[in-house]
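Minutes, project check-in
Item: structure for the 109-residue chain
Input as provided by the requester:
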Amino acid sequence: MPDVTSSVVISHPVTIVWDYISRPENLYTIIPGVVSATSAKQPPYELGDLWHGVNRTFGITDEWTGTFTHLDPPNGMEFKLTEARVPVTTRDTLEAVDGAHRNSPVMLI
């Protein structure tokens, strides 16, 4: 199973970064191939909360449902697709670096 990792330094307070990455309507700017994502509730999210979405990768459209398997606001989270063609888990870790914050997302495929 391959792991896809990246790291980006964002010069905003961790609470601003957390607020952005923990909203389903922003997911398409964070994870390539995401067309849409929604949640039945507003943040703050809890373990087991579900998001639903659509991915389009390599010409294949896939509807998915996923759940939070780890939440540590505003330090990190893990989200696992529970219903999808390709099982994927994403992990985001936020850490302070030189007056900014680094988001180090990992996608486990």
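Outcome recorded: The two ends are 6 Å apart (CA to CA).
No further action items on this chain.
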